[in-house]
Write a structure and sequence with these properties.
This protein is an alpha/beta fold. It has a single domain, classed as Rossmann fold, CATH 3.40.50.720. The chain contains eight helices and seven strands, in the order E-H-E-H-E-H-E-H-E-H-E-H-H-H-E. A seven-stranded parallel β-sheet has the order 3-2-1-4-5-6-7, sandwiched between helices. Helix 3 runs parallel beside helix 4 and helix 4 runs parallel beside helix 5. It binds nicotinamide-adenine-dinucleotide.
């Protein structure tokens, strides 16, 4: 994908799973990648993997629920590298309470958008991808089994609300910055083989999740990364405000 060579990207939650896969993909395509994560060890491991393939990357500790820290990190990238072309607002959590979930999943994405889009507009353009979910376009389908479990329903509701909110933010910022050359899109992954799925669910639970996808399997982080890379590239130059499913047909049912 020649269209993103020589660009500068900032990725949140780049220390694991989908964020790591997107970082590796952008780096292979010639982008310099700032890999941020609240888990600096994870971010450093991603940087090591990128450097092994000859790519350019650096690691940074960042908690996306801290607005001042997000603002400073983005301004620093623009200052140090002379530009900020790509933002991947990917950090997210599941299984947490309302406040924690929304502070990271929703406010964190908003902080990235509100502080990166003006930088991109001033330099003449840029592209953002926000990681939403199939839970951004519909409810978690198996929740009916657990309606009496207030803690579980609370965390599921928070996750679903935060991921729906990301799509609203995506549309709002896409429209606001369309004439400034900043494109803003969302990806909506189905269940993807990352630590939050493979380490926290039994084999039986994973087979159940596989059965929810018409393709009969979970997605690979790399399959999500391919779509994110397309959306930030010039190949997607007329795509903005979209929420793109990467879900093996889950939302088509
Ligand atoms: N795996 C799936 O099935 C799936 C499906 C749909 C959407 N998603 C979304 O994809 C994104 C990535 O998830 P993943 O599956 O790769 O999970 P993951 O747990 O493997 O990676 C998430 C990363 O985010 C980091 N993080 C957590 N809180 C943070 C914070 N406050 N600030 C900065 N970084 C923080 C973690 O340290 C971790 O490295 C999330 O937004 C998640 O909601 C995942």
């Amino acid at each position: 994908m020649p269209y993103i060579e020589g660009r500068v990207a900032f990725i949140t939650g780049a220390g694991s799973g989908i964020g790591r896969a997107i970082a590796l993909k952008l780096a292979v395509e010639g982008t310099t990648v700032v890999c941020s994560d609240i888990d600096i060890g994870g971010a450093q491991d991603t940087v090591t993997l990128i450097k092994e393939t000859g790519g350019l990357a650096l690691a940074e500790a960042l908690d996306t629920s801290d607005e001042t820290a997000v603002k400073e990190a983005l301004e620093q990238v623009a200052q140090q590298h002379g530009r900020l072309d790509i933002l991947i607002n990917n950090a997210g959590v599941g299984g947490k309470d309302w406040e924690t979930t929304n502070a990271i999943n929703l406010s964190g994405v908003y902080y990235g958008l509100i502080h990166a889009c003006p930088i991109m507009a001033r330099q003449g353009g840029g592209a953002v991808v926000n990681t939403s979910s199939i839970a951004g376009v519909g409810a978690v389908s198996w929740a009916a089994e657990y309606h009496e479990n207030t803690d579980l329903l609370g965390s599921l509701s928070a996750y679903t609300a935060s991921k729906h909110g990301i799509i609203g933010l995506t549309k709002q910022f896409a429209v606001a910055f369309a004439k400034a050359g900043v494109r803003v899109n969302a990806i909506c992954p189905g269940y993807i083989k990352t630590p939050i799925i493979t380490e926290l669910r039994s084999e039986k639970q994973q087979s159940f999740l596989e059965s929810l996808h018409p393709m009969g399997r979970l997605g690979e982080p790399q399959e999500v990364a391919e779509v994110a890379a397309f959306l930030v590239s010039k190949a997607a130059s007329f795509v903005t405000g979209a929420a793109v499913p990467v879900d093996g047909g889950y939302t088509a049912k």
